[in-house]
Sequence to fold (493 residues):
Amino acid sequence: MDVVLAQYRQISVIEGPYMSLTRSIFVCILILILPGLICWSQTTPQPSHTGSLWSELTAEAGKLKATRTRVDAHQLLAGWGALVRSETQPPAGKETLKVNSEAARGAAMNLYPKVAPSTVMLHVGAGHGTGFVIDPAGWILTNQHVIASAPLDADTGALMVNVHYGRLDDDWMKLADDSLPAIVYKVSDEKDLALLKLVRQPKAGGPLPAISLSAISPPPGADCVAIGNPMRGMLWTVRSGEVAAVGRWPQEMIDVVSQRLELKGEERRVMTEVLNQATPRKVLLSTCGINPGDSGGPLVNDEGELIAVTFAIPRSDPESGFSLDKFSYHVHLDEVKEFLKDRPQRPSPFVPNSWPEATSTSAADTDEDGILDTLVCKLGEEVSGMLLDLDKNSAARLPKDKPLDETNIREFWDFEFAIHMLPFLMAFYDTDGDGKIDLILRGSKESRDAKSELKLADGNWKYSGKSNKALVSDQNFTDKNLRRLMKAHPFTK
Fold:
């Protein structure tokens, strides 16, 4: 790997004819949207592991110099999870679960006894988010980004979460002593929603009550109530407000609209094209005060019916000193209903996307043979993953006279191996070179060996909670040529 770094330091930056224009527009969108929202699940960062595979990969990949660089429009526009997850802030120590004892007023006071018993806290590792029951059979709805880093269930390979619940006791919620395991049945990165089901019901008190979905969407100015588990606050903290706005993200965000209207000619055309690549997502804004840990919580109307799911708030502007957290972002009811149309009969193994989440991607020539062979993906300044084109058949197909954007990079970049560093180590292999990822190994930052594996066989993913494979190894390829190329790649030396 030292050889790779020495080579990268000698590589100069090369840009296509439209690269500067496209990059400036993408950066505008990035500045306007990405730093502007904070997602509100609460996670603790992983400790560093000196001498581990993870620390070696991160330290060395972070020094790589690019030959072509782009802002990743797909990751920026295609999923709320990628947009906001990197902005979470860690708690300053071990969480202490406390029940809210602040008296609610108005609509919140009347709805608390109805909504709070259906609202739960989801514990994922050292962090937490909020969820709520939508069916007494044990179905729970939350954000996808809340459960994204959850551990795998040893039997099914699906994500598993610990659910903390409570019961109403003399007008206040009382935390139950035990927690309930729940398995993730369905996720949507684009809608930032996840559907879970309890493995078992509470031992006492019967099933948890469910929140009903509203039949209609609320009008602007309608009363609404949010409940959740905010950081530094209390469990089942309730807040009231009003529906402030409804619109399509990101096309109708005011900063994006204003920026597009100011652009002229080719710049406006390119920005419009980028925005058109994004599937519109309907969001609702409220004036409820949301904090970290509230992600995945319910927003209800004055009847206690669900109208949206909390996921983010605007970030304050450090330069002006103005606080921009006067309203909160929620996944709109229409998106929720669409997501819940189909409920899987059984959980499926969690199959992660082989493309790392990224706000920027750099393409480079690691062995200085004049052919681009590696993509390095970053979330902000942190390396999130790398994709290796071992047989080097991608570079020749990349357009030379068009912007390097998400459309052509995903269409033309063919990789046989990928490594993800965030939120944990994962390795992806196209073992037989047929163009499809068919082996996924999940590891830890403490070890070079895989902890579990997913294998594609006869069109179905098979999960094993144990693996005898090394996370990064040429021996994981069945194709002899790919095995040879992997062994010779500077990345593995």
Remarks:
- Residues 19-33 form the longest helix (15 residues).
- The chain is about 20% helix and 30% strand.
- Residues 126 and 404 are 38 Å apart (CA to CA).
- Confidence is low (pLDDT under 50) at residues 1-36, 43-51, 63-95.
